[in-house]
User: What shape does this take?
Amino acid sequence: MKNILDQAVSAFFKCAPESVEPYGNGHINHTFLVTTTEKRYILQYMNTSIFKDPTDVMDNIAAVTEHLRKKIIAAGG
Assistant: This one.
């Protein structure tokens, strides 16, 4: 897991993070809090034994988020 985490951190962050800590206690995926000098981020390792197509999962998240955004805007938020 550490090797995968190191690869993900180096791929997503231009600077070395101040810390990478486990976040929560999920049963399927592994979640980490990445702290940089500017911001904090959540990085999640998706268990591909359970979620066979991560691209479909992300497409679904994007569709739901966009739907909710439109509803919130329509309600004046």
Notes: The radius of gyration is 15 Å.
